[in-house]
């Protein structure tokens, strides 16, 4: 099952795919369904629920975020990950109503 993010009228949502592969090639007069046939390929949307805005986390917690920064990301991929982490961290409030929330 593969997952991919798409943009739709309600914002981003997931797209799940399931593909059945051919293990043994056709022999003799055998028949095999095409790759895009309903027998071998299924697709459906998922995660259609929009997040409430603004999304804030005020739980009391210690937070550690580990980020993959391997060379396979390249410069554009690393910039995308950094932007995501910055937007994620911005939603955590260190203090909320004067109390320590997350560290």
Give me some keywords for this one.
17% helix, two-stranded antiparallel ribbon, alpha+beta, 5 strands, 103 residues
Q: Helix and strand layout, with pairings?
A:
Layout: E1 2-8, E2 11-19, E3 41-46, H1 74-90, E4 95-96, E5 99-100
Antiparallel strand pairs: 1-2, 2-3, 4-5
Describe the structure.
Strand 1 (2-8) and strand 2 (11-19) form a beta hairpin. The chain has one helix spanning 74-90; strands spanning 2-8, 11-19, 41-46, 95-96, 99-100. The longest helix has 17 residues, at 74-90. Helix content is 17%, strand content 25%. It folds into two domains: 2-46, no CATH class; 52-103, no CATH class. It is α+β, with helices and mostly antiparallel strands. It is elongated and about 75 Å long. The chain has a three-stranded antiparallel sheet, with no helix packed on it. A two-stranded antiparallel sheet has the order 4-5. The protein starts with a strand and ends with a strand.
